[in-house]
Amino acid sequence: MDINDNDPVFDQASLNGRLKENLANGNFCMTVVARDKDDGLNGTVSYFVSKSQPSPDRSALFTIKTTSGDIYATGRPDQYDRETNEYMLLVIEARDGGNPYRSATATVTITLDDDNDQIPFFPLPLYTATMSEITTSGSILLVPAIDLDLEPKLQFKLSGSPGTEHFIVSTLGQQANIQISKPVDYETDPHVYNMTLYVHDEIDTHINSTQIQIFVTDYNDNPPVFESSSITVQMLEERPAGTFVATFKAKDVDSGLNGEFDFTIVRSSDPRYEFYIDPKSGNVTTRKPVDREVSDVRRLIILATDKGQCTVSVHFSRPSGPFFFSKSTY
Question: Which positions fall inside the Cadherin domain (predicted)?
Answer without folding.
Answer: 11-122, 123-226, 227-308
